[in-house]
Amino acid sequence: MSEPAPETPAPVEPDSVPADAPASADTPVPVDTPASETAGDEPGVETGGATRAATRVIAFANQKGGVAKTTTTLNLGVAFHEMGYRVLLVDLDPQGNLTMSQGLNPDAIERSMFDVLVHRVPISEIVERREVDLAVASIDLAGAELALSALIGRERSLEKALAEVRGRYDFVLIDTPPSLGLLTINAFVAATGVIVPVQCEYLSLRGLVQLENTLAMVRENLNPHVSVEGIVPTMFDGRTLHSREAIEILEENFGDLVYRTRIRKTVRYAEAPVKGSSVLKYDPSGAAADAYRELAREVVAAKEAEDGAQARKHA
Taking residues 296-307, what's their average pLDDT? Predict the structure, then answer.
């Protein structure tokens, strides 16, 4: 009687899990980890024995300038990284303030998000590794809207570019220009949600209505799932009645969308970019850094609560 044939092991798909995949979704991935080592991580699949949630792509938008949009994008991203998440920042503002805030000169950058959007250069080729990964901007980006206007599917250029790297990150945070033009529309189409930094002044609040109207058009025609997931009160000065009244108006009109964390006025937020760093690196134990750590925890908790409510609804 012949021996039974040994069982043939199930084939293993190559590169389905990186060789050095972390044992847990909560395990931090160092900033200097080469992108190729995490390229196999796809959202919603098992990685090293744990299942990662789908990548969150958050656009930071407000057509009014000077509301701490870039400051919030950078410092919230670094706070997420401190929590162990993999983070990519995307500088979509032709002014390049996010790029400068990490010690890079937009005027000296050879290839940037302009080349990604217009010339279809892979986004991984223009990512710089700083405190977190950063897709850089240059002055050329100022011509992107005109160049994109002649392309078919121009509103989806960023969405298509991010497809290459989405599985490598838990968060992709997009800093948008202070306008509701084609670059910002690209961010809305690519995003899973929008966070709106709002200066605690009355005139800053009025732009929220126009932003919501733009998002409604994007939902109707391009991305049915995008919406405002949170509003961040910035430049808050609790000593002034005007700041407190601005918070009251926000909460009356937007309720739970307004985060409890208040980003207060402090010179630390202006000093840190001069050193090419986030405030969490510049003054790690200060109140300014702690404010963004608190905001990061609140953003994560709010999303977890929303996901839990959706799961119960469909149970």
Answer: 89
